[in-house]
């Protein structure tokens, strides 16, 4: 090949191709390519506290929703394991009437094992319910980026109609390149 090494030839081809490839498109075509005007330090601190408070409240709302769903779905497991541990002679050995007349150590052990066996499928069901509800309510889209605190002119929400976090006048379409 007339004095050129194969490695040099491949490097030349790659560099020519990389010059011809355009840059990545902006995330949202409607937004400006450059960030807005920076905020003053005091204003930036106030906006940071506001956005942090909103994001913390949304996080707590998500945790509360998850706690309620998991508690309701896992209630059979909780009850079965509770009675199994309460009536077993090696654990709590309650003096309740049903522990003396109905449940002995073998049946208490069976209740404990049954409770832990049915826990796995119920955890999957609870997580599926939470994920579908969070997707339907669009709770995870409601978190606001901290860039709103740094620059003026940002939009507050990027969610679709019907979501809990949207105010009137927000964009109804999400655009992203992948």
UniProtKB/TrEMBL annotation:
One of its GO terms (molecular function) is PDZ domain binding. The keyword Membrane applies. It is a multi-pass membrane protein. InterPro entries: TMEM88. Signal peptide: none annotated. Keywords: Membrane, Transmembrane, Transmembrane helix. GO terms for cellular component: plasma membrane. Its main location: membrane. It is found in: Membrane. It comes from the Eukaryota. The chain crosses the membrane at residues 57-85, 110-130. Belongs to the TMEM88 family. This is Transmembrane protein 88B. The lineage of its organism: Eukaryota, Metazoa, Chordata, Craniata, Vertebrata. The gene is TMEM88B.
